[in-house]
Specification:
eight-stranded mixed beta sheet; 496 residues; five-stranded mixed barrel; 25% strand; alpha+beta
Length: 496
């Protein structure tokens, strides 16, 4: 059926060209956004429109078409909304009506004419002039059901956007959130910067990188897994407050909360610590909530989340102990932790180091239950290679992760600025890498040299923009907030 329609449309295209009609037009001047028209005239009556005619030029995609002999109704859609259009042979020139007869749903057109109200009270533009702007050669998805195949919606996002206005709205909201973040940080004297996306050493996070090769330099490079080490080099260089909204690439799994290419906000503030970052993070989320929702009470997937500061603080090990109803000291006993891991059906090495066991236990049993917002603080040093140690407990770090709706939204810490301690941590990471941990941090001599010139006390925070947008637009999958999520090629993929 679709192939038949495509052939019919191609015949119309050939006919238009034969008549000298340009099927892919140029600019359409003096157009008015459809939302502007509907808002301006929403209270008008038929009599008022007759007394004071309102004539407009509009343009958009034709989303419906109902023909009645020598007349028809259609709905035109632009980026702002929809408006009904009325076509009648007696109101159009012979050439324009001939053109109209060759139109199909999905075509982009420009129309000029006056407004009126139909007998049912619908605001409608009466077409007096018609311009074809782009002929659609493929039929749109069935008008009542739209594009219902979820996988196809992600693969053919352009059709998803055409047929689902609520999807377009999610990405409009995303843009507003990112713009609000920029304004928030700029107002606090943070400078937006850009750092490299290709690194000679993959660093700043525990993740597998994507590898590429630079032909001229004849060297392998890594797509950025995090901008952290470059942003901290800027702190060494004298910038005291910097931020970057950046694209990161991690060669790891795909899920409802993971995409191999994602957007991250990272910001760093000199002469501050992780307590300052907690306060700043609360302020940032409160600003977004007020701007987007007008309230600090957020509805997410049927649950209410209260973002009113201050948010609870709970240490990492206390969170594990509370979840499993044991004494905090019991977590220092490998047998106890191994038994907890087995009870949670986790696959862990028999002689695994305690921090690795804690991490597996936390991710599997604690994290999903953190409705939040809650700051989980004071992570073990062994799993926090870039964070400053707590002065009163060197086996722990001044680090927090923010959890909301069972997901990590932010990761922050007082930055490790002791070059000797950082070198020792890198060496431990390098040993883990040699032992088979391909996500362990590599040795970065240039970064260590930068620290040796002196980095002031600094706090930094990273926030996943995609997960943040999921939260504020009430989306359950990261694919619903990324315009073109990564997809595996599929033999079943074909245009509808």
């Amino acid at each position: 059926m679709a192939e038949d329609q495509i052939e019919q449309r191609r015949r119309k295209l050939a006919g238009l060209r034969a008549q000298g009609v340009a099927p892919y037009g140029c600019r359409f001047q003096d157009r008015t956004a459809l939302l502007e028209i509907t808002e301006k005239h929403k209270d008008d009556t038929g009599a008022s429109l007759e007394t004071t005619p309102a004539i407009y030029a509009v343009a958009g995609r034709m989303m419906s078409l109902r023909r009645f002999g020598k007349a028809a109704f259609a709905h035109l859609q632009d980026a702002t909304g929809r408006l009904q259009i009325y076509f009648k042979q007696s109101h159009l020139s012979a050439s324009d009506f001939s053109l109209f007869e060759k139109l199909d749903m999905g075509d982009h057109i420009g129309v000029r004419g006056p407004l009126f109200l139909t007998q049912t009270g619908e605001l409608t533009l009466q077409a007096r002039q018609l311009t074809l702007l782009a002929k659609s050669l493929r039929p749109l998805p069935e008008k009542w059901h739209g594009l219902t195949d979820v996988e196809l919606r992600y693969r053919m996002r352009y059709l998803d956007l055409i047929t689902h206005s609520e999807v377009r709205q999610v990405f409009v909201q995303r843009a507003k959130i990112v713009d609000g973040i920029r304004q928030f940080l700029s107002a606090r004297q943070f400078v937006e910067v850009e750092t490299p996306m290709m690194h000679p050493i993959a660093g700043g996070a525990a993740a597998r990188p994507f590898t590429t090769h630079h032909n001229t330099l004849d060297m392998d490079l890594y797509l950025r897994i995090a901008p952290e080490l470059y942003l901290k080099r800027l702190i060494v260089g004298g910038f005291e407050r910097v931020f970057e909204i950046n694209r990161n690439f991690r060669n790891e799994g795909v899920s409802t909360i993971h995409n191999p290419e994602f957007t991250m906000l990272e910001f760093y503030m000199a002469y501050a610590d992780y307590h300052d970052m907690m306060a700043l993070t609360e302020q940032l989320f409160s600003m977004i909530a007020q701007e987007m929702k007008g309230s600090l009470l957020l509805q997410y997937q049927g649950k209410q989340i209260d973002l009113t500061p201050p948010w609870p603080r709970l240490s990492y090990l206390d969170a594990i102990a509370q979840k499993h109803q044991i004494e905090r000291a019991s977590l220092d006993e490998p047998k106890t932790v191994m038994a907890l891991a087995r009870s949670a059906h986790l696959t862990v090495p028999e002689q695994g180091p305690l921090p690795a066991l804690w991490e597996a236990l936390f991710e599997a049993t604690v994290e999903p239950a953190l409705t939040g917002p809650v700051f989980i603080t004071d992570y073990p040093t062994d799993i926090s290679p870039l964070a400053k140690r707590r002065a009163d407990a060197p086996q722990l770090t001044e680090r927090f992760e923010l959890y909301i709706a069972g997901r990590e939204i932010a990761n922050a810490f007082s930055e490790l600025n002791d070059p000797d301690d950082q070198r020792a941590r890198f060496e431990a990471q390098a040993a883990a890498r040699r032992a088979g941990d391909m996500e362990a941090h590599q040795m970065d001599e240039d970064y260590l040299q930068a620290l040796e010139y002196g980095m002031p006390p600094t706090a930094g925070c990273g926030i996943g923009i995609d997960r943040l947008v999921m939260l504020f637009t009430d989306q359950n999958s990261i694919r619903d907030v990324i315009l073109f999520p990564q997809m595996k090629p599929s033999a079943r993929f074909s245009a509808p």
